[in-house]
Amino acid sequence: MFRKLFTFEEAKKAIEKHFAVKPLGIEEVSLLEAYNRVLAEDVVAPLDIPPFNRSTVDGYAVKSEDTFGADENRPVKLKLCGVVNVGEMPKIKVEHGTAAEIMTGAPIPEGADAVVMAEDTERKNSDIYIYAAVAKDENVMKAGADIKRGETVVKQGQILGAREIGAIAAVGLSKVKVYKIPRVAVLSTGAEITEPGKPLAQGKIYDINAYSLSTAVMESGGKPVYLGVFPDDPNEIEKALRHALTSADIVVTSGGVSVGPKDVIPKTLSFLGKPGVIVCGIATKPGKPTTIAIVEGKPIFALPGHPTSALLIFHLLVRQIIECMAGRKTVEAATIRAFASTRMFPARGRRTFVMVKIKRDESQRFMAEPVPVGLSGAITTLLRADGFIEIPENQQFVDAGEGVTVHLFKNLENIRV
Ligand code: AMP
Ligand code: MG
Questions:
Q1: Which of 93, 321, 374, 386 has the fewest CB atoms found within 10 Å of its own CB?
Q2: Of residues 355, 358, 338, the one with CA closest to residue 389
Q3: Assigned domain for 136 exists
């Protein structure tokens, strides 16, 4: 099969042209099911919170002016006029010269405008001695002070955690609208690939990609649907891909896309449906054999078998699509400036991504040190790398000591330099 390698940008454009990336849809879920989901509409408070003026302390509800001048030596004496408990509206009215016993969280009774803390009072039968003056509204939380009716409590696009779900519960809602989670079929190919947990026969290796890619799918806000490992047999692969298309919104495969006789994925993708293959190889290193198809309106990303290449291309091309379909804002990876620790060469005519480890030199400057290329196909390359640098296709080399931008896989705080 003839391959015209696309540049990285051409590959992105081809995807945009054939596949309109947008959120999959919206569904309503109960509050606890909403955990870690993306809110699809603003949550607006249908009422004031708190709904009534409430006491923030245990003590006595009073008219504040009755307490003016009170101190430790000259207490003011008021008459007990009743008790206000939590969970009920008070039936009493506080008149001049009187005080109502009140619990934390109970509604302020009519006539009162402040609460004296129990610690500043003394009670003798129905006489209440007030040892500290209070100002108007002291120890009172006004209706709507926390959340005003009509106020936006949590904004559309927010990923929901404990604080947000607590705030939604506060305004009395038991359900929320969230974006649907895109389902991503993940399948591995190759006669040598064995599922972890099974005994390893001679000549076989364990499946890395199904796990690294499924995890990357979850990190992007998608739900991985693991379909298994398939041999490099056109019939088996076709069956597997057709099944994948019926069970998911996106399909991600790994392996079988190089130019070897066993690499049957591109050929299979070419007759699965229209428009079929839209990208057949990208001028990048790693990731050159990456093949992308659109079938039945769904994208199929056939990634290289090498674990590092598969995950890098996922990161560069697939992640944003899943994030957008999941209603998530794409967060660009953080970058830092560093100095190249050695001279680095790109692959001729291909955009080259070099995995690097961040170190510091004697003067505490960040240095980007390539993770040994001998490990290029191994998962440990990614484990050791803190990020990658990108060398444009037309650049001859990056010189030692040259400034480079490192795209970080994780937050710098989590990197030990
Ligand atoms: P392929 O493109 O199928 O020739 O795969 C390239 C290399 O990646 C080979 O060494 C494969 O054994 C390896 N590989 C392919 N798929 C996986 C996988 N799922 N897990 C780990 N290694 C893989
Ligand atoms: Mg293979």
A1: 374
A2: 355
A3: yes
Residue 38 is classified by DSSP as B
- Would you call 344 helix, strand, or coil by DSSP? strand
Nearest atom in ligand 1 to 190's CA: 3
Global confidence as pTM? 0.90
Residue 268 confidence (pLDDT): 93
8 Å CB contact between 62 and 115? yes
Count structural domains, the chain: 4
Mean pLDDT for all residues in the chain? 94
Q: Is residue 285 part of a domain?
A: yes
Note the pLDDT tens digit of each residue in 93-140: 999 999 999 999 999 999 999 999 999 999 999 999 999 999 999 999
**Do 167 and 126 have their domain in common?**
no
Q: Is residue 161 part of a domain?
A: yes
Of 298, 325, 352, which residue sits at a domain end? 325
Residue 209 beta carbon below 6 angstroms from any ligand 1 atom:
yes
Q: Is the CB of 224 under 6 A from ligand 1?
A: no
Between the CA of 255 and the centroid of ligand 1 the distance, in Å, is 5
Residue 155 resides in a domain: yes
State whether the beta carbon of 255 lies less than 6 angstroms from ligand 1: yes
**What's the Cα-to-Cα distance from 315 to each of 61, 101, 146, rounded to whole Å?**
61, 62, 41
Model confidence pLDDT, tens digit, residues 143-160: 999 999 999 999 999 999
Domain hosting residue 396, numbered range: 335-414
Residues β-bridged to residue 110: 93
Q: Is the pLDDT confidence value at 376 over 60? A: no
